[in-house]
Please model this.
Amino acid sequence: TTVAATFGVALSAGTGQVTMTLADTVTAAMSSGRYVYDVLLTDSGGDKTRVLEGQAILTPSVSRS
Model:
């Protein structure tokens, strides 16, 4: 019920490829756990269609630079 983050989404009209991005500064501020997401397309009439949905698991990093 709460939005934890908003992905950047780009759609390539030529290939139909969807690219989702989430900045490292955003994930660094999030708690570890399981999140759900969806991608909605809004047409010119305002109607929304869910075209992609799934789960994202956020785990803490153990590597040090």
